[in-house]
Known about the structure:
Tetracycline Repressor, domain 2; 0% strand; 2 domains; 10 helices; Arc Repressor Mutant, subunit A
Amino acid sequence: xxxxxxxxxxxxxxxxxxxxxxxxxxxxxxxxxxxxxxxxxxxxxxxxxxxxxxxxxxxxxxxxxxxxxxxxxxxxxxxxxxxxxxxxxxxxxxxxxxxxxxxxxxxxxxxxxxxxxxxxxxxxxxxxxxxxxxxxxxxxxxxxxxxxxxxxxxxxxxxxxxxxxxxxxxxxxxxxxxxxxxxx
Length: 184
């Protein structure tokens, strides 16, 4: 059975709910109540439940959407003339452009890696290609593999939110990570 496309108003409501959920989950993690998401979206709780029967379903949709967008940005960066600049700009965008949020920290946990395996694998593939191009261009150390990079980034994301770091501390810490990736 094929799923019927949503009416225009229902599609807009779904998008509003998803945007409000991303904002709320990014700020507060999965603990935010669905009623609060409905309020932020300007819809009733019934509308939220109609599109997302559980908070977990909404959280998953929000994460998958965010990961898909990051994957698109990584793929776009692959077309840049300067692979090194594109690589570091993409990492910087992950940090400042919404990548380092409570929702991704929650998703990086053991359950999250299983639930988001497909989208995460696509993101990691795109990041791996970007890393490889930056290494070939001589901008990134060649002794760093994708696993190393993902471990460092994951540790950074988790540490920043667990320690409630201020923006200056986050910036200094991320600068150290970027400097450690650069060729000497």
